[in-house]
């Protein structure tokens, strides 16, 4: 670390223009940076490097005109940014601003490192705000728009991951809308990388919390391919966020039509059998939302009631539906004019009655008489 803290002149002058003594300093800087890049993969070494004062030195070196030096430092930061203490320092020392500029680098590796660091640093609202204000979100969207980048799996995963984290801030969702980002994200749903798809669907789950973006997703022909992911993948994070997108979109009547016409209800129901409590609980919540947003469609009401009743064959699902307050909306179907609906509601209520709390709720809803 000591040998890396070279005079500013060394960093601002092309190597061939440096005096002999400073060329030796530059050569030593490159060798030390390259060595620490390799050593920084160890958590123990990261701690020693931090205690040795590497953070302000890295901030200084990031401004160098020497691309190889910047490349080594970026490699070190990629390794170190997994630790909260380094992420805080990256922000406080102003390094994040310099790193965001490198999202526009013509070098794929440099761009990939910048996207990876941005992904790691976008952990808190303040950092996500800074990324937006420095044009980072625009740069990330521009990266994933480039057709030739789609074969760069690491770059695409890092960039879409950073976009997803940034969208946890509502202001960043607004910025994405302004640059037509939802259409860009929809085009990534056919990626060969499950990590890219997972980040993309998670991003769309954040976007569709806002009403106008449900319409935008449908207008971009994005909802149907998202629904179909429920039968095309076993990736837990994808399945969870697909359910969240469907849950968010269920309040839009035209989105609801697409869910129904593309077998979305059955597919969400099938997730209740998936070997993941997170997938099951998210799917359960989505089924309840779909139930609450059905109007006068008797076939749909019957199908949903049957799905909930079937899910209750697993005792834990019975408790889950109780926590999600499914009893009240499904109880209303008992007065349906459709015999098929009434039969399936009875089946669902029978399943829900396996939980004592649900029985109390049924009585208060007037089901028992």
Automatic annotation (TrEMBL):
SMART domains: ARM. Gene3D superfamilies: Leucine-rich Repeat Variant. ARM repeats lie at residues 94-136. InterPro entries: ARM-like, ARM-type_fold, Armadillo. Signal peptide: none annotated. This is Armadillo repeat-containing protein 4.
